[in-house]
Specification:
It holds the Pfam family CPxCG_zf. With 198 residues, the chain is mainly beta. It contains 1 helix and 18 strands. The strands form 5 sheets. Strands 3, 4, 6, 7, 8 and 10 form a 6-stranded mixed sheet that branches. Strands 11, 12, 14, 15, 16 and 18 form a 6-stranded mixed sheet that branches. A two-stranded antiparallel ribbon has the order 1-2.
């Protein structure tokens, strides 16, 4: 439309009231974006609407189609904020959120191997699911998300902090899964040094 306001007859979507008037459209604000993808950081820009409030954890697409997630927000005073109205944003720090590297700790009953699983943000992992690696398979028996430790159910990759698994040594997955009421000791999964040949 290219205008800063619109005049007309409007109906409120919440209460249903009809009124005539002029509505000022929020203006567009261009902000700096610091984009990180592993060891590479580049500066780009994005457009926010004046009435937006951005938060750490928000996801959006850059103009070139890359899907990103906000990790830090710098306000006009140069301070880090978890959320900020768009007019006060000085810069957004974002990371690539197309392919995630989900941390996994796989135990073979002697030692624990730290692994990374590539996944898209909405890929799901379920307790009891079998993960296939080059020379062996493992079953997921716990998932730590940003808010809780799961002993049953499913979580999306975007919410997962770590997956805990046990190596299958000829057992059926249900023989490895433990009662969800049984205490879970994360210290048993302290990552050792991973031998990539194993």
């Amino acid at each position: 439309m290219g205008r800063s306001s619109v005049s007309g007859t409007f109906q409120c979507g919440e209460c249903g009231r009809v009124f005539t008037g002029t509505i000022r459209l929020p203006r567009k604000i261009e902000v700096k974006v610091m984009f990180s993808d592993q060891d590479v950081t580049e500066v780009t820009r994005t457009v926010l609407m004046e009435d937006e409030i951005v938060q750490v954890g928000d996801e959006f697409d850059l103009d070139d189609g890359r899907h990103v997630q906000i990790t830090y927000i710098d306000n006009a005073e140069g301070k880090r904020r978890k959320s900020c109205p768009a007019p006060e944003v000085k810069a957004l720090w974002v990371k690539s959120f197309d392919i995630l590297h989900v941390k996994a700790s796989i135990n073979d009953y002697k030692r624990t191997y730290p692994m990374y699983l590539e996944a898209e943000p909405d890929d799901e992992f379920t307790i009891g699911m079998i993960m296939n690696f080059d020379t062996w398979d493992a079953v997921i028996h716990a998932i730590k998300t940003k808010t809780k430790l799961m002993r049953r159910g499913t979580a999306e990759a975007r919410d997962i902090v770590r997956i805990y698994g046990k190596k299958l040594n000829g057992q059926r997955p249900e023989e490895i899964l433990v009662d969800e009421d049984e205490p879970f000791d994360e210290s048993l999964y302290d990552d050792g040094t991973m031998d990539l040949d194993e």
